[in-house]
Write a structure and sequence with these properties.
Length: 186
Amino acid sequence: MTVEEKSGTVAAAQAMALLLRPVRHAVNNLSMVLTANLDAAMPRLPAGETTTRQVSRAREAAVEYDQLARGFLALGREEGVRPAPAGRLMQELLPLLTLAAAGPLELRLLGNAVVERRSPALEGALILAASGAATLPPGPRPPLRLDGARLSFGWPVPPAARAALEELGATLESEGEGTSVTLPAG
């Protein structure tokens, strides 16, 4: 990499850091306006009509976009630690975990617990863990199972994910062909 390329990369990173908070705020506002207007329009549309189905699909896409954008932008948040329900954390991350897994992922909630949410490090470590599924053959991935603070991946997690999770205080164990991660209590 040349000096000019390095300077450009540094400038781009600085610009992203500068704009992260206002972009996150704008995306949240735009998503809220979009979904609220689609929600308001739905009851006025005739049931079974093509337009109603199209608006319904647009609303579903808007909600998925909102979840994906919010999750991605949250990775740039300032570091912080707070207690959080593990189930809600995993549901928020599911769109990003699915992308990292390179295939459809299902989350099975068997029980819930409050865990220590050290953001954005925990989110990043869980996304890296999900990326282990990308090495599996194409098709549906084994489901993620969350039982309290214990999260089971149906595949081995990559070494970088293992190190990041252990650094956060999680306990990892082999479980069949996969890995179980016990997240620290909040």
